[in-house]
């Protein structure tokens, strides 16, 4: 009986962790935690490598497009560079979801790789 109970609890725990991880990896998940550019920049300055690859949700406006896939985005706390294969509207308030890409050993720029976006409702 104890073994069956232990196996059931272990399975539920693994399922819960898998579901939680899947939610973190889903850029279209509407329950994502909204971040701020200031938070991302602060983690980058602190050299928090755990931020690299982490999903982030930002609400703000694209202020400028630079070249093919590079945009500049503001949220009231700062500005960050976006890398997006998806065309983004300039000047409209939007929600962007993507993963944080930190500069490796100081090479490159801090940016958000956009996976999806939508207009603010």
Describe the protein's architecture and organization.
This protein is an alpha+beta fold. The chain folds into two domains: 1-31; 32-119, Beta Barrel (OB fold (Dihydrolipoamide Acetyltransferase, E2P)), CATH 2.40.50.200. 27% of the residues lie in helices and 33% in strands. The longest helix has 24 residues, at 2-25. Mean pLDDT is 78; it is low at 4-28.
Write the layout of secondary structure elements.
Blueprint: H1 2-25, H2 37-45, E1 55-66, E2 70-74, E3 79-83, E4 93-101, E5 111-119
Parallel strand pairs: 3-5
Antiparallel strand pairs: 1-2, 1-4, 2-3, 4-5
Q: Notable features of this structure?
A:
single chain, alpha+beta, five-stranded mixed β-barrel, 121 residues, OB fold (Dihydrolipoamide Acetyltransferase, E2P), globular, 5 strands
